[in-house]
Amino acid sequence: MTSDIRWGRLGELGLFVLPDVNELGTVAAAEGKGSSVVGGAKSKKGVRLASIGAVAEEFGFTTRALRLYEEKKLVAPRRIGNRRVYSERDRRRLEVIAEGKRIGLALDDIKKIIDSEASDNPRRYLEIAIETYSAHIAELKAERKQLEERLRKSRELVAHLESRLGRG
Q: d(Cα 129, Cα 149) in Å, to the nearest integer?
C-alpha cells in the first residue's frame, strides 16, 4: 500500500507533500549561462535549479527568510560558485513552508513535517503531517473559544456602559 502513495499536491486544499528524494537524483554542476530556466539553470541531470532571487519572487519570501530556512535546515540549496541554487526538491519544501505559514503553523512544526520526509516513507510523512495539522486545528479551536469568550465579555461591558447612559 505504501508504494501506491504518491507525492504531490493534496487536492483543492493547496497542501503539498514532499517528493521521493530518489526521484530527483543529485544535482550536478550547472551547464552555465543561457539556461532555458528563468532565474536559474539546469543541471547535467536535467534537474531544474533556481537562484535565490527567483525563488524569493516565486514564493513571496524575502531572501533573508530563505537564508533563515537554510540555517534551520529546512532547505539545502546547492552552491555554484558563491551563488545559492534551489532544486525542485528545495522548491517543494518551500511550498510546504509557504502553506504552513499561511495557516499559521510554527516553523518548528513545519520542520517536523519536512524532516519526516527523510524517512523515505510516504505513509509516515502523511501520518506526521496529519498529526501536526490536527494539533494545529485543536490549537486554533482553543484560540477561537478564548476569543469568543473575550467577545462575549466585551459585549456585556458595552451593554453595561450603555445602560448607565440610559441607552439600553
A: 30
